[in-house]
Amino acid sequence: MDKILRKFTDALLDGNKVYASQIIEQNIFEFFSFEKLIVNSLERIGKLWENGEISLAQVYISGIICEELMDKWTKMYQFNNETNLNLAIVVLEDHHTLGKRIVQSILKSSGYKVKDYGLGKTVDETIDLTIRDNIEILLVSTLMLPAALKVKDLKTKLQDMGIDTKIIVGGAPFRIDKTLWKDVGADAYAEHASQIFGILKKMVKK
């Protein structure tokens, strides 16, 4: 897998979408591996940029290619887990898109309807939208730790208002600190997008 990861990362940095797609076609046969390849490649690219080894343009192009590939390949995976849950997804405080788009794509491909609250929403904006739409389960994606810590404020304010919306979190801060989701009062944490179905099923049973 490391060899595939290196090849895929190099293809992204070269802006070669055709070769990146070929790598997936020849080596990836289930969604978990597809998602892992995308996430690990972008994390590696992020570190290269932080170290000054690549340009910001390469980071941007890599993200665009991954989003386009994701749109194409998630259509191949039909999970068939549709329910009538009232769901919404939001990127809290941050402005990244890939994590949210991965989750949205696999949910959409299996028949779920998910309201998209967009990027960079504040806690109060998210609460207003949640109340307006009577959301049962809110999916919160974050990229940076300060945004992840805002989940605690979000959950507390909802509870103080008597609103029992469940919160599922995901993103880099929660992958780094495996107990952070509990510390901020979230109801569940999905390390990988494909785990979302099992979490939703458990919440429905409760």
Automatic annotation (TrEMBL):
GO terms for cellular component: cytosol. Residues 83-206 form the B12-binding domain. One of its GO terms (molecular function) is cobalamin binding. It comes from the Bacteria. This is Methanogenic corrinoid protein MtbC1. It comes from Thermosipho atlanticus DSM 15807.
